[in-house]
Design a protein that fits this description.
The chain is α+β, with helices and mostly antiparallel strands. It has helices at about 5-20, 25-40, 55-60, 75-85, 100-110, 180-190, 195-215, 225-230, 235-250, 265-285, 285-310, 315-330, 335-350, 360-380, 395-410, 415-425, and strands at about 20, 50-55, 115-120, 125-135, 135-145, 150-155, 160, 260.
């Protein structure tokens, strides 16, 4: 039974919406975009900057190096990068074209201009408010819910844009992620016309494999990828998780290469794609088989993450690593039954990993999650599985996914708050 045309087109659109390029870790880049937009609205270089950010933004920007800044990290650095060198028209690639002169100017700007940072209360988990001031004028931009979604813009206190008005302006609604199911994801992968997704998947393969190679070949972060290979060898099961970890090693350390994201995250984009690419190479899979396996891994990750939300105490590497296991299962000939068991087995193994922000140790969490995805598949092929009522596992893959979403989207809120308190040294 084939998918309906409406569901098929929705799945294609989800891939096009999700698999977009980003330059740098998406939370600091979102902040840089917000700051760049605020400067554009102000029409002058700000003399004072106020940043209000949700706890999850603070958590994910605090420790990661901002690319194209000569090694700067943290919230003021991300804002300064956007203000001094950002092009808001580029959105998640806002600071991809910074000049050497602008890099120097960022450091000078940080020393000269007061930039205050305060927590944003009672907002979304992904929420950024930037106010800038110069020559008696002010501008205010707020980004909320997703990394590029501008909620409103004010200049000198006057509202000049509010997202509610976008309905009248013909802004397109996002494709309905609630239509995703594992059954239909596998069916879509089997039936899809490669031409409908080739461009976005080719870009994902090219960008994400390139940064993984960079992470393996040079000194980035904690060098998790190269450490794995030196310690355990280059068996495909090791190489797949090592290459994914290496991509994160580079990305979290300010590597100036773009990444195609998944669920708003570059680390998740690397994790859902690179292990599948490595397995396809070793198995000598056809390019068509790789495209179809990547459709499985990408859409499975989006399916899980949609129920959790863009930012959470639930580590996004988990949903992405387990989804990569599903893509690998597809390359081995697995279809709905094999993929469903792979996903349940892997989610049952690593769903306890929490997110404590973007930083070097993300690479190690990625390696663990990819390993769980691979183990989930090999458990199935050896006649082993986790059964309903084994902890958070319920009968049926969709019920187990719902349980994970309950944990990540709601139950871990207090954990998230405590992590943020620890990271910000608030007793």
């Amino acid at each position: 039974m084939r998918l309906s045309e409406d569901v098929y087109r929705t799945y294609v659109q989800i891939l096009k919406e999700e698999l977009v390029p980003a330059f740098g870790c998406t939370e600091p880049i979102s902040l840089a975009y917000c700051a760049a937009k605020a400067r554009e609205v102000l029409g002058a270089l700000p003399e004072r900057v106020e940043i209000h950010a949700s706890g999850n933004i603070i958590k994910n920007v605090k420790s990661v190096i901002v690319p194209n800044t000569d090694g700067l990290k943290g919230i003021p650095a991300a804002a300064a990068a956007g203000i001094v060198g950002g092009n808001p028209d580029k959105k998640l690639e806002v600071i991809a074209e910074v000049t050497p002169e602008q890099k120097h100017a960022m450091c000078e700007y940080l020393e000269r201009v007061p930039i205050s940072v305060k927590p944003l209360e009672n907002g979304e988990k992904l929420d950024i408010l930037v106010r800038v001031y110069a020559a008696g004028h002010s501008a205010e931009v707020r980004i909320s819910r997703t990394h590029c979604n501008i909620a409103y813009i004010r200049r000198d206190g006057e509202m000049i844009y509010h997202e509610d008005a976008s309905v009248c302006e013909g802004k397109e609604a996002k494709a309905d992620r609630s239509l995703l199911t594992i059954e239909n994801i596998v069916r879509f992968a089997e039936d899809m016309d490669i031409a409908d997704v080739k461009e976005v998947l080719d870009r994902q393969i090219s960008y994400n494999y390139a940064i993984a190679l960079e992470g393996m070949q040079n000194d980035w972060g904690a060098n998790i990828g190269s450490t794995l290979i030196k310690t355990y060898g280059d068996d495909v099961k090791i190489m797949s998780k090592a290459m994914a970890a290496a991509g994160s090693d580079a990305r979290m350390s300010g590597c100036e290469l773009p990444v195609v994201i998944n669920s708003g995250s570059g680390n998740q984009g690397i994790t859902v794609s690179v292990p599948v690419i490595v397995y396809a190479e070793r198995l000598r899979s056809s390019q068509e088989e790789l495209y179809r396996a990547l459709a499985v891994s990408n859409l499975t990750a989006v399916h899980i993450k949609h129920g959790i939300g863009p930012l959470s105490a639930f580590c996004g590497a988990v949903s992405a690593g387990c989804a990569a296991g599903c893509g690998i299962a597809y390359l081995f000939g697995g279809r709905e039954e094999e993929i469903s068991h792979t996903l349940v087995n892997s989610l049952a193994t690593v769903s306890g990993i929490f997110c404590d922000g973007a930083k070097a140790s993300c690479a190690a969490k990625i390696a663990s999650s990819v390993e769980a995805g691979i183990l989930g598949y090999y458990m199935y092929t050896n006649g082993q599985q986790f059964y309903a009522e084994d902890g958070i596992v319920s009968k049926g893959v969709e019920n187990t996914i719902r349980n994970v979403c309950r944990l990540g989207g709601n139950a871990m809120n207090e954990t998230d708050e405590e992590i943020i308190r620890i990271m910000t040294h608030c007793d």
